[in-house]
Amino acid sequence: MVYDNYNALAVGCCPGMRPSEAILSIALMPRWITLCFLQVRGLPDTGKRLRGDGNIVRSVCLESGAKILDEPDIRALIGEALQRAKVPIPGCQQRQFLIKSVSAKQRPRRPADSKRTRKK
User: By three-state DSSP, how is residue 49 classified?
Assistant: First the structure.
């Protein structure tokens, strides 16, 4: 599912048409990309890669590009998140690609000025 929310353009991995069932998403910001884990309660992070301390959403910043997705810690997190999903992704169902606008108001997508920096 591709959706345009208030902060970013996001590509989510979910089993059906309900965004609330999303397991993972990639949020595209003007200066970075974030891999979000959306069902993190009990998700083991042995490599200490996840940012934040939320019970629902935690993330990994993809500052070094797509190479980070091949790292063993990240692959383990993705695999575990998919395995623990509240609603599993069906293996043999025809895939759908849905584009949706989630927020009525949008922030402009422009890089932050030099005085503002991304929170770490």
Answer: coil
Considering the entire predicted model, what is its pTM?
A: 0.73
Beta strand pairing call for 2-4 and 99-101: parallel
CB-based contact 81:59 (threshold 8 Å): no
Over its length of 120 residues, how does the chain's per-residue pLDDT go in tens digits?
Answer: 787 766 788 888 888 777 788 899 998 888 888 999 999 888 999 889 999 888 889 999 987 666 788 889 999 999 999 999 998 887 766 667 777 665 566 556 566 554 444 454
Rounded Cα distance, 102 and 118, in Å: 23
CB 60 within 8 A of CB 71: no
| Cα–Cα distance measured from residue 16 to residue 89, given in angstroms and rounded to the nearest whole number | 8
Residues 6+ apart with CB under 8 A from 22: 1, 12, 13, 14, 38
**What is the distance between the alpha carbons of residues 41 and 3, in angstroms, rounded to a whole number?**
24
Q: How far apart are CA 50 and CA 109, in angstroms?
A: 25
